[in-house]
């Protein structure tokens, strides 16, 4: 009996088919491993630069915060909200007023992914200097509150310690800089921890 009659294949193509399937399985496994590794790295390290992140990790501070003035000593704030079923976190500016009220700022907020997703009394998390605070966010729309938040931002950016942490080429805005109409701000208040 010939090889062709016995196996139904000619010239050992059965072993070639097994090799191709094995190659595909190893390729899929390698792609899955890279995706899991990259996803794990991303979820543990971001938000970073302009790349949004996932869950904010850090020491949990669950006591209420009445005076957020210490936020002016931190160059970068990170906020996490829920978007559908998943957490979404970003880097942004935060600033406290002289009275200790905390605001987050976002230029061109209407064009950002996360800003329009913040609803009234939006639960979230805020990370300052590695510490995570449960918070509630509310968009500010009245001019007097927006102006107060803008002035707090300008004042924070005048501080030499904050200036040294700004990206290369960033300029310090003058004290009389006008607030752009496209600038959004969110009032932050403490929330009970989950």
Walk me through the structure:
The structure is a single chain. By secondary structure, this protein is of the alpha+beta class. The chain has 2 domains: 3-45; 59-190, Electron Transport, Fmn-binding Protein, Chain A (Pnp Oxidase, Chain A). 30% of the residues lie in helices and 25% in strands. The chain is built from 4 helices and 7 strands; from the N terminus they run ααββββββααβ. Strands 2-3-4-7-6-5 form a 6-stranded antiparallel beta barrel. A hairpin with a 2-residue loop joins β5 and β6 (131-140). The chain is elongated and about 80 Å long. The N and C termini lie far apart (74 Å).
Features:
single chain, about 190 residues, alpha+beta, Pnp Oxidase, Chain A, 6-stranded antiparallel beta barrel, 4 helices, about 25% strand
């Amino acid at each position: 009996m010939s090889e062709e009659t016995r196996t139904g294949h000619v010239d050992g193509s059965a072993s070639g088919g097994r090799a191709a399937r094995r190659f595909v399985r190893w390729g899929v496994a390698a792609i899955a491993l890279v995706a899991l590794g990259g996803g794990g790295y991303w979820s543990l390290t971001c938000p970073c630069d302009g790349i949004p992140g996932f869950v904010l990790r850090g020491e949990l501070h669950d006591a209420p915060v009445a005076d957020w003035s210490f936020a002016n000593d931190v160059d970068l704030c990170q906020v996490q909200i829920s978007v559908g079923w998943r957490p979404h976190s970003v880097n942004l500016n935060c600033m406290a007023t002289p009275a200790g009220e905390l605001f987050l700022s976002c230029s061109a907020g209407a064009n950002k992914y996360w800003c329009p997703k913040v609803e009234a009394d939006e639960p979230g998390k805020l990370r300052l200097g590695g510490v995570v605070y449960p918070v509630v966010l509310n968009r500010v729309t009245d001019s007097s509150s927006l102006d107060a938040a803008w002035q707090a931002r300008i004042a924070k950016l005048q501080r030499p310690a904050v200036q040294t942490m700004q990206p290369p080429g960033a300029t310090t805005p003058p004290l009389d800089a006008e607030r752009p109409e496209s600038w959004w701000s969110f009032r932050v208040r403490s929330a009970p921890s989950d």
